[in-house]
Structures are given as structure tokens and as C-alpha cells.
Amino acid sequence: MAAAVLETVAALARETRTGGAAPQVGLDTTLERDLGFDSLERAELLLRLERACGVRLPARTLVDAETPRDLIRAVQAGGAQAPAAATAVAAPQPAPAPVPAAGVPEQAATLVEILEWHARVHGGRTHLTLLTETDAGPVERTLTYGELHDDALRVAAGLVARGLEPGQAVAIMLPTSIEFFAAFFGILLAGGVPVPIYPPARRSQLEEHFRRQSKIIDNALATMLVTVPEAHAVALLLRAATPSLREIVSVAELREAPAQPPAWRPGPRDIAFLQYTSGSTGQPKGVVLTHANVLANIRAIGRALGIRPTDVFVSWLPLYHDMGLIGAWFGTLYFAVPFVVMSPTDFLGRPVSWLRAIQRHRGTLSAGPNFAYEMCATRIDDRALAGLDLSSWRVAFNGAEPVSPDTIARFNARFASCGFDPRAQMPVYGLAESAVGLSFPPVFRGALVDRVDRAALARSGIATPARAEDAQALRVVACGHALPGHEIRVVDATGRELPERHEGRIEFRGPSATGGYFRNPEATRGLFDGDWLQTGDLGYVAGGELHLTGRAKDLIIRGGQHIHPQEAEGAIGSIAGVRKGCVTVFGVPDRTAGTEKVVVLAETRETDPGRLEALRAEIAATGLALLGAPPDDIVLVPPHTVLKTSSGKIRRAACSDLYQRGMLRAGHVRLWPQLVRLALIGAAATLRRSLRRAGDVLYGAYAWALFVPLALAALALVTVLPGPARRRHAVTVLARAFLAAARIPVQVAGAEHLPPAGPITVVANHASYLDGIVLLAVAPERCAFVAKRELTRNPLARLLLGRIGTRFVERFVVEDSVEAARELAAEAAQGTSFVFFPEGTLRREPGLLPFHLGAFQAAAAAGAPLVPVAIRGTRSVLRDGQWRPRRGVIQIIVTPALVPDGSDWAAAVRLRDRARAAILAACGEPDLAARGGRGA
User: Fold this and answer.
1) Rg (CA), the chain
2) CA 823 to the chain's CA centroid
3) Given pLDDT bands bounded at 50, 70 and 90, which one contains residue 490?
4) Which of 366, 343, 381 has its CA nearest to residue 428?
5) Which residues contact 733 (CB under 8 A, 6 or more apart)?
6) Most CB contacts within 10 A, which of 409, 430, 522, 587?
7) Is the pLDDT at 560 greater than 70, yes or no?
8) Sign of the C-alpha dihedral, residues 343, 344, 348, 353?
9) Of the given ranges (338-342, 350-354, 813-817, 851-855), which has the lowest mean pLDDT?
């Protein structure tokens, strides 16, 4: 048995070393320090040991075992393993007895009120099921809403008895367990502020781990730490490092106090918890999230997903990160969706356990970062898939790190035979500063991958669609639209909002947005751009959907080229001899060239000089293919040199700092002629960008210089010309003259659908104040415009629009609005043609709003054709809230005329729905009505 374990360890070490000298593996060789095994390689080792020794190893072996001697003990303690096909998948649970739907706590304003509502309405109903992997298989423990509430009350009483005061922070350093849930709500019920931080992976590293976490505890001014009993031994160490910390306590100790009614009632603006970002360096950044922030995000996500009473959420995500805490736990708590939760360690040790849990509990919702889907696609033995059924899975969230189209394709292909539907794939985008979620694609649409011209994006920052034959196209996964009630925009370095397919910095605003970082005013100031929050990410919008291209701080600008490191890191990590996932590409200033050098830092176990030179040559060739030029410096380092966050993300800035301080082994340096060339290219690119910005400003001024005199001419003509028809004709001519002189092409498709004579009703979407000018130029002159009455407050607009026969309608006073609708219907019945914007208003956010019914009542009363018209491009030329137009092309799509099938209310409703569907299909923007959008 011992020989088999040693040989299995040695074989994996030889494979990962790729061609180097065979490592010497003894009983006390350390897996991490001597062999460099990371968590993924440990997971592979566990799988091989189970095959070789015919045992089932506990998932804890993944983190507890330090040496082959530890592995031998675990194998000797393991039981005989049954045939793989027979034990691969646990039988699905029988369907639970139906529970009468009790709705959701719509009036709740805090997390505490949510729990209290559920405990009061259906306290005996199961809230969560905790799965724990054991030698004999998964063990389940359930927790009802009432049990959670009672347990939290006991914890709260213990905290108050130890002197916790309202508003004081309490750190939680617990693994996924019943104790974590009780501790979190116990802190809230006691008036404290929970601060979840990640627990140590190994108990042997407890002291070292606490030293690293002391900065967070100190920044939060935490007075207590709730953790495992073993932590008491280092209480003196933590107290010395964090003066605010008074006590380290376990949940078991807190439960000893008798439960008492809570004396503290948090309000919606009180802090719900502090979420410390995993990549924080220096002064920690604790995102302040109020109860109102968290509930707004949960409700918006629920509306975007269409949460159903039959949904079941299965999760292994850590509870100290926002995706597991808010997205999985709080979301299921609010919507009363059964929550099946397991430890991240169990998933890492045996990835198939996640999928088995989905089958057993008929999970419909589940989530993970991209690496989780990659592990399932590549690290699960084929025998373990026998009988696996994933057909219940309707939403597979993929977020928290860059989403790889290759990973999605591999996962879809691997699990298609298990019933997984590719349409369930949902790449999403979010960040702690927005609670958790910010943009979601349509449900059951599947992943949408945009292929863009790599060179064009690097050169100009424009995501130009790539040609079909372009093998070097960059593939970017769409992350959907902003959640209901939230907005996203893309801006350049000056804060100017960019049109579609222009790469820039992503900003957002909405009710989920944090107010800043706890006790970190400098970072808070850097977070805000007016009332917009900076995400720190780069991307572009295409088809109304957000596409991420990288982190702003990670962008490298070399010779005017914009280089995103993520794709190069993945490609270099796939080279034999380089440790996958342990590569970083970053830029460092090159003052000689006036640009940035591109540095590749890659981990390898190779030590042979010849093999290292071959690796450098292969990395240089890969960099040349992806970046357009070889890296300026290639640094090959031993395992565990590349710095990562607690969640496994590469810390590029920290690696760059080590490099610039000379703390990494020097690599190849490029020669001065290339530096001169790059400096010249960089200067030329800077000049081009400056000229483009100046051109934008000049164009805006030119457009206004055209518009003002033409508008004054229109006012003069409508004043002196007799009859609305002549006035309308004059304004039409001037509108066409403005668009032509401003060089704004208007492309009309489907003009044959406009009846040449007779009464008609034209309805169009409303994306910009430019829409009226465009329709004046292209709509039949027999059509009178219908506009909102607020425009009459401006005397010039009232004069111009009124003199060409515009009808003004009231939107807010119900009696006046109803009367206006009757008058329009009467006119339409007598043969008058109209142009309506049935949304009634416009917004800067892309998307089609709900339609008001007035236009369709008029059309139904007249029995005349109704022509839906889609306007595209005006939002990019002149977006709401901006007054400087940009160059752009406008498209008018005239769809086939619709004939009312009656004249009553129901016929008007049917006509509205048919017209809106036609415009939605042609306008290229998302459906805000389906996502809960409302007009102003």
C-alpha cells in the first residue's frame, strides 16, 4: 500500500515537471514545498490514489495531508471502494411534499425582517440542507427557518452578554457549517456588523493565517472574532496585532446564553455587513453594504431570473465571498428557495460531488467561477458520469472571474450526454461594490460569444466584428444587460461616454451600489465618478450587452497597442513545462522608450538550463502570435512565486511590484532599437487619440452651428407660412438639410411597407431627442406628431411643434390623459394619420420600455393600418443627458403594417403587443419591460 502511494505521488510529480529530472519522493516529502502541488494537483492526486488503492478518501484529505506519510494513513483508514459505475451517482431524492406557497417578504426592509417573516409564516419549512462528504458518502443535515432564527437568537444573547454594542463589527472566520449561518444572523440580531473572512485551509497553518487576516480585523475595528475552538491558542497573538479585538469565541460558547428577544432593530440604511475584497493589498478595502443595498440586488436578480417556487439552488461557493453569501444564501432565503450547500473543500477534493448534489436534489440553479466548470470538464473520471442526470439544471451561473469560451464549450460537450442543456449556461458580471450582481443575460439563452478583430481592438479600442475566416479573432463572452433599476456605461479616460463597440472603463449606478469603503476615504474617493461608480474593469457594449475585456489596472499600453494579459496568460499556461494557472503578464514603465515593457512571469519546475531556454523561446513565440511582438522580458520562477488572492486570482500589481524592486530572477531584456521603435509608435498612437478627441469636439460644435440657424429658420417659416401642411413641408426640408449637412446618414429599410395614401398610424421606439428630427425627415408628411404636454412649457418648442399640427397629450393627470386618448381616437376615426412614440419618454439606458395604449386605441378606432418603425443608432449619436452629438449612422426599419382585428379595448391591447414585438425584434435593444423597466 505504501509503495503504491509513493509511486502515485512520484508519477504525478514527474508529469508536472515535464521532462526534468525525476523527483525523489519519500515518506516525509512535503507536497507543497518540495513538490509544488497546488489545490488542483492535489485534487488530481486524490483521484489517482482512489483508483490505485481502491478506496474512497475523505475530501478533507485534500487540505489536511502534508506528506505521502499522511496520504498512506488516509488510504489505510479508507474503506474498500465499490465498483465505480454502481456508486457514481446517488439516487435522486423523492419529490418533497408540496408546501403551500407563502410568497416572499416584499415589505421586508432588512435581512433580519426577512428571516423573522419566514420563521413566522412557515418556521417548520426547510431552509437549507448542509451536505458533508464522508467515507460512506454524503451526509445531510437540514435547518428550518424557525431553527435558524432560534439558534441566531441564542448566539445574539451570547454576544450581548459579552458586551457587544450596536454598530460594532464582529469577524466570522468559520468554514461552511450550521455555525456560520447562526453566527451571521446572531450578530445582526445583537446589533453588530458581520465581517466574513476566509478560514484557514489547514489547522497547522492557523497562526500564519491569522497574521495575514489581522489587517482586515484591525480595519473593521472588530471587537470579537467568532471562529473554531482551536483558534483560542492564538488569541494573544491576534490581540497584540489588533488592538480593537477583545475576545475570540466559538459558536458553541455563545449558544450557552439563554435566548432572548433582540433588543436591536436595524434599519434599511444600517450596515448589513462588510465585504472585504480578496485582492486588497496595503490598507484593506471593506465594501460597505447596507440592508437596502443587499435587498435591492436580491430583488433585481430575482426579477431578471424569474425565480420559481420549484427552483432549488445547489452551491459549494464559499460563504465569505459575495457570490456564495448574497447570490446563493441570501437570494434563496428571500425567495424561500430550498438551499443545498456543501463545503468548497468537498468540491475541490471531488468535483463530481457538486454535480451529484444537483442530480440528487434536482437542482435548477447553481453557480461557480470559470475554473469550477473547467475542473468538471477535465478532472472527472468518465466512470463517475455513469447515470448522471443534469437535466433539471436551468441556470448555470458563471462569474467572479473571466469566462472562457473554450471552457464553456468543453463543459457543454462533456455533459451533453448527462442531459445538460447548453442554454442553461449564463455568464454573469458582478462585483462586491454592487453587492454581487450587476449584469445578467436572458435566461436560457446560452452563452453568446462575440468574435472581434484582435488588431483593431488593440490599435483603436474598437471591437470591430472579425471576419469569418479570421483565425486570430479575439473571442469575448457577453455578460448581458444591467439588472433592473441599474445602469452601466462605458467611458474613456476623460469620463466621456463611448458609443457601442468602443472599449473603455465600465461604470455603474443603481440601488445596489455601495456608499464606499469602510475607514478608507482615499479608496472611496477613487471609486466615484460623480454619481457613477468605477468598476475597475474594461469592456464594451454590443447589442446592448456588456462584454468584458480585462481589468483597467492590468491593461498594458505598449507602442500605442492596448494589450490585455488574460488571454496570453492562458495560452502560455498551456505550454508543456509551465504551471497552468501560475502565469502572469504585466506591464512596467520603460522610461527610456516612453512606453511600457511587457513582462511574462511564469512558474515552472524545470531546472535544466537547456530546457529553460526552450521554454523561453516557446513563450516568446506564443507572445508574438497573441501580442503582435515578443514579450520584453520572460522570467521563469519556481512554484508558488506568482502571488494570488484568497480566491485564487492572480495579483498582477503585486507581482509587478516585486519585479520592479528586483526581487525576481532577471530574464531576457530587449535591445534599444526596439525600444526606440516602440517609443515612436507610442507617440504616433497618442497623437492619433488626441486628434480623434479634438475631432469629436469640433464635430459637436459644427453640428450645433448647423442646428441653431436651421432651427431659427424653422421658427420663422412656421410663423409666416399659411396652413399646417406647408409649415410641415418646410420643417421636413430643413430636417433633411440638417442631417445631410451634419453628415449623419439615415438608411431606411422597408419603406415599401408605408401605404402611399390613406390614414395610417406610425409608432416608433424612442431612444434619443434626435428621433423627432429623423422622423420629421422620413415620415409621410400627412402624419401629425403626438408629443408629451411637458414640451409646451418651452415657448419655442410649443411654437414650432404646435404650428406644424402636433397634438400634445397629458401623461400624468389621469382625467386629462383619458380625454386626450378619446380625442385622438376620434380624429383617427375621421382619417387623420399620426406618429406616436408609445414609450412616452426616453432613457439613456439601452432598451425598449413598456408601451402606453393611446396610440393603439386610436389605430383600433380608425381601423386603419398601423406601421411599427424601429429606430437604430440615434442613442449613440446623441444619448440622453448629453448635448454633444457624435458621428454615426442611423437606421430606420419600417416593418409590415398591422391591421387591427377590432375596435375595442382588447383589440387595442393585442395590436400594441404585436407592434411592440415587431419593434423589439428590429431595434436591437433589450426588453426593459420583461426585466421590470418602467418609463418615467
Assistant:
1) 31
2) 47
3) very high
4) 366
5) none
6) 430
7) no
8) positive
9) 813-817
Q: What is the pLDDT of residues 398-435, one digit of tens each?
A: 988 888 899 999 999 999 999 999 999 999 999 999 99
Q: What is the DSSP string of 491-520?
A: E-TTSPBP-TTB-EEEEEESTT----BTT-
Mean pLDDT check: name the lowest of 64-78, 217-231, 742-756, 913-927: 64-78
Helix (H, G, I), strand (E, B) or coil at 459: helix
As a whole number of angstroms, the distance between CA 80 and CA 82 comes to 7
Residue type, 176: T
Which of 432, 477, 446, 439 is CA-nearest to residue 649? 432
Find how far residue 183's CA is from the centre of its chain: 28
Paired residues of 548 in beta bridges = 539
For residue 839 the three cell numbers come to 414609450
Which cell goes with 116? 423573522
Instruction: Please name the residues in contact with 57: beta carbons below 8 A apart, sequence gap of 6 or more.
Output: 46, 49, 50, 74, 75, 78, 349
What average pLDDT does range 663-672 have in this prediction? 46
User: Under a CB-based contact definition with an 8 Å cutoff, are residues 386 and 85 in contact?
Assistant: yes
**Predicted confidence (pLDDT) at residue 629 exceeds the cutoff of 80:** no
Q: What cell does 82 get? A: 465499490
Within 13 Å of residue 357, how many CA atoms lie on the same side as its CB? 30
Task: Give the burial string for 629-642 (b: 16+ CB within 10 Å, else e).
Answer: bbbbbbbbbebebb
Which domains does the chain show, CATH number per domain? 2-83 (1.10.1200.10), 111-344 (3.40.50.12780), 556-670 (3.30.300.30), 697-923 (3.40.1130.10)
- Which residues, at least 6 apart from 716, have a Cβ–Cβ distance to it below 8 Å? none
CA distance 77 to 267: 52
Report CA dihedral (926, 927, 933, 936) to the nearest 10 degrees: 90
Closest C-alpha among 829, 828, 786, 794 to residue 811: 786
* Residues 694, 556: Cα–Cα separation, whole Å: 24
Q: HSE (CB half, 13 Å, CA atoms) of 695?
A: 7
Residues 6+ apart with CB under 8 A from 857: 821, 824, 825, 905, 908
The CA-atom distances, in angstroms, between 376 and each of 12, 348, 456 are: 19, 10, 35
Residues with Cβ < 8 Å from 633, sequence gap 6 or more? 597, 598, 599, 600, 666, 667, 668, 669, 670
What residue type is 120 in one-letter code? R
> How far from 571 is each of 404, 583, 608, CA to CA, in Å?
12, 10, 23
Contact at 8 Å (CB) between 340 and 315?
yes
Q: Give the three cell numbers for residue 207.
A: 497562526
What whole-number distance in Å separates Cα of residue 396 and Cα of residue 408? Answer: 11
pLDDT value of residue 672: 45
DSSP code of 468?
T
Helix (H) or strand (E) holding 918: helix 905-923
What does DSSP assign to residue 458? H
* Residue 296 and residue 272 in contact, taking contact as beta carbons nearer than 8 Å: no
Global pTM value: 0.76
Strands 807-809 and 783-788 turn out to be: parallel
Specify the pLDDT at position 678: 43
* Mean pLDDT (whole number) for 502-520: 95
Q: Write out pLDDT tens, residues 460-486.
A: 889 999 999 988 888 999 999 999 999
Banded pLDDT at 436 (limits 50, 70, 90): very high
Q: What is the mean pLDDT of residues 759-779?
A: 91
Neighbours of 335 (CB within 10 A): 21
Q: Closest Cα partner for 739 from 697, 716, 689, 773?
A: 773
- What confidence category does residue 666 fall into, taking pLDDT thresholds of 50, 70 and 90? very low
